[in-house]
């Protein structure tokens, strides 16, 4: 008898003595096993009729796994109490109750997914539903094109889980398979040691030799599956600190060193070159090298990262670089700086400033100057690392795990220029999050809750921006937080939300994603890092297990099911993704740095236009200069008061070439980066300039914007009535691969939508639900989180 079996029997005996629930739990498992048998019988029948049962195979796999997991959880109540207890409220105070209820919760959810699987397959066998066979991923033969991943010659969307039960080899089919995904993580197994299976600072010895044991973590990777390598920047060796005591001064949260330090740059340059040489041509680099995990350098004194030693001070090297940057920026004119800063410095070498920066400086020239410099130095660091990597591997694809909230939120002291870094790397990289409930530490409702089933702003706003900047690049979300995040989780998470958010992210550009996170060993126990006392540098990790995907069979099953469906319709989804973006919102980093709520303002107009049947896009100075103006019809400038002279001149040049600009009012573009009033104003020239009145409403601006792109509006018209005046369904119309007309509809709203689909002449149309082959009329309902892909006749 094993220790776990003995523990289980003892708990059952105790439950019998106390009149508790052990027998009920056994009945739940028996019910699950009976339904599992029923589904497997139906699958045999389907196979005999040559019906694809890949989807059901996943239901069966997760059911068996979670029946096993539930038994482990039942035999280890105290372990789960601890894991719930290290998270925040409401889990901490309910840890005993949750740990006791968890096994039955898992069994109940297994029964639910089995019931759904049985009902669906019965409909398939009866001919009520016709499904496309799943386009399964060939994990060992992925082709990486410029802007698409291919499997067996067709577009494919890759999926997996972050971290993946640390230490499990690629050959372990219990964690690397079609159900959980099989992207090999060459460097995501990061915690708690800074140099665990990653490209890191500790590879290089002081004498210039290499740590051969650590190098094996790179060179000994099994070269069979598509994968990636990560530059883990969490620490710096003692020998570097002994030579350069300032080497970790001005560190970021996950960047444990000063990126301006000459010795640090030399060390990392050598490591990047060596890593490129050793891994060139290997499959583990097909998804590229992630140059950093969530980089940022918040310089604001009041920011939460100050508690974790981020940018508490800066090094003499950073200070010297800032002074050199100021001298170049001001063309050597110290008087101009003194006028802006209201100071009296004799020269640039004598410039002083408070640091960390008090947030009260926001909107003043000193704030702008340092924030702009901070972004430029971050871009310079990644440019250097990428150049050194490509000296070792000229073909190296790269991305950076950028946090989308660094773009979508209002703060701008973080040192990350999302546009510049998206341009720099050969792949788009991010770790987007969404949430279906408000943050657990907030008592008042968030604004999105009034209208939407989940918070999609960070994802959609940033993805549309990144895809506008780099429309021809693969997009790799290497740590998606759709299922849980630091302050967001719910044990009974709605699976409909999972389907909606994965679909939304994919049509907006996501080619490959790794969900946070998978931490179950095959026997059901948490992986090694989550056992014993949990004390990590990363404050989020210890609580990550509680109420995560590891305890939710319905959620992990739905992740795989929606990926199966999207991969079955990958060509149709790619057609939706490659649509032209006829309307562009002008984005200025200058306004974003200076204004306390610029992104909030920008989202107002973006949100209004997001539900009008076409993909939104952005225009910046660089986009206007580098991209074909035929890719859009008009540019909307909205509440963008601060722009550089170069940004202003680029908009004027666009008008000179015949472009169309809609200006919300005359206050936009009225100031330069330091807040000085601009004497010039835009002129129509050869183009078309529309300036809304001073008191024009947002709805009036929207109407005018839609008029400007009328010729590019879809041939179908979707009308929504959800009982409110606020739209919730985002939709796209596109010509499908076989010449048919497709419409994709996602109800992001919190209300059921009554929808009417007509052509431009006002006549109703016939359509087919492509996921089920069932007919849909011109009038139909779509529930919150609903997903439809229709073929229109």
TrEMBL record:
GO terms for molecular function: beta-galactosidase activity. It comes from the Bacteria. InterPro entries: Class_I_gatase-like, GH, Glyco_hydro_42. Gene3D superfamilies: 3.40.50.880, Glycosidases (3.20.20.80). Keywords: Coiled coil, Signal. One of its GO terms (biological process) is carbohydrate metabolic process. PROSITE patterns: PROKAR_LIPOPROTEIN. Residues 25-56 form a coiled coil. Residues 1-24 form the signal peptide. PANTHER family: BETA-GALACTOSIDASE GANA, BETA-GALACTOSIDASE YESZ. This is Glycoside hydrolase family 42.
